[in-house]
């Protein structure tokens, strides 16, 4: 109880601004001198001290510990009531500050995420651009190589035999290379193809071959026109046969393609 009284007394004296507190432990409990208290609106001076006369009445005497504690607690309660608005204001300020800090943290996180997304988008776009350029270079190289191969294959083809029923054709048939006759092959071109032709509306090709020419010669001619065997089939009309699957050393006469035949180029 004495310790409690001492602690509460210190609080009250600090609140009231009465200065240093005398330790109540060193005083007798039945007759103790305390700093002046305001009891019910009246100032109570310490024994041996007097205050100038005021409008208020002055009470002197000794107080019991329970009265001291009650008065201290009442003073503390009054003081806390006075501080309550400040506590509420400080609590509200801290709450607002916490909300602002949370909003700022959320904004910074959102900004960071946006920056990461922007960097990721830029990286993906750059990778796509590099890939497009690589594919374009690869496509250009393939087209260049294919064009060079077509030219080489075209240069290796035997001369086209003369048109039938002409003196040149009779002379050709009289030679050993014309022993199996001359055949006219019509090639039906595929639709929706990427092959570039001088006449986009052209639907067929026509060329003459010697009956002793090999199937490979016909396939080479098709490749020289932009239709390689790796991408296109070469089909007879009736019976339907895929010539690309047959022996390429067979002659056109052996394959019954003389004196004429219509062949269809079909994309694989």
UniProtKB/TrEMBL annotation:
PANTHER family: FAS-ASSOCIATED FACTOR 1, FAS-ASSOCIATED PROTEIN
PROSITE patterns in UniProt: UBX (PS50033)
Protein name in UniProt: FAS-associated factor 1
Species this chain originates from: Fasciola hepatica
GO cellular component, one term: endoplasmic reticulum
Residue ranges of the region described as Disordered: 106-168
InterPro entries, A to Z: FAF1-like_UBX, Ubiquitin-like_domsf, UBX_dom, UBX_domain-protein
GO-annotated molecular function: ubiquitin binding
GO BP of this protein: ERAD pathway
Comp. bias regions, Basic and acidic residues: 111-142
Record-annotated UBX domain positions: 200-265
Top-rank taxon, per record: Eukaryota
């Amino acid at each position: 109880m004495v310790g409690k009284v001492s602690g509460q007394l210190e609080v009250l004296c600090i609140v009231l601004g009465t200065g240093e507190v005398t330790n109540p432990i060193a005083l007798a409990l039945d007759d103790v001198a305390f700093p002046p208290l305001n009891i019910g609106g009246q100032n109570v001076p310490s024994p041996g001290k007097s205050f100038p006369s005021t409008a208020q009445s002055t009470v002197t005497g000794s107080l019991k510990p329970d009265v001291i504690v009650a008065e201290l607690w009442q003073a503390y309660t009054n003081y806390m009531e006075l501080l309550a608005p400040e506590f509420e204001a400080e609590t509200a300020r801290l709450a607002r500050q916490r909300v602002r800090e949370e909003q700022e943290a959320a904004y910074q996180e959102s900004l960071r995420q946006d920056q990461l997304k922007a960097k990721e988008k830029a990286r993906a776009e750059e990778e796509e651009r590099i890939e497009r350029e690589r594919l374009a270079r690869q496509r250009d190289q393939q087209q260049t190589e294919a064009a060079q191969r077509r030219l080489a294959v075209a240069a290796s083809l035997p001369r086209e035999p003369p048109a039938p029923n002409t003196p040149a054709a009779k002379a050709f048939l009289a030679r050993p290379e014309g022993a199996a006759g001359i055949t006219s092959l019509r090639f039906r071109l595929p639709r929706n193809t990427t092959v570039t032709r001088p006449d986009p509306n052209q639907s067929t090709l026509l060329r003459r071959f010697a009956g002793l020419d090999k199937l490979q010669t016909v396939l080479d001619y098709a490749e020289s026109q932009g239709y390689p065997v790796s991408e296109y089939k070469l089909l007879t009309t009736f019976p339907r046969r895929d010539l690309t699957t047959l022996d390429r050393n067979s002659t056109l006469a052996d394959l019954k393609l003389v004196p004429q035949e219509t062949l269809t180029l079909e994309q694989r």
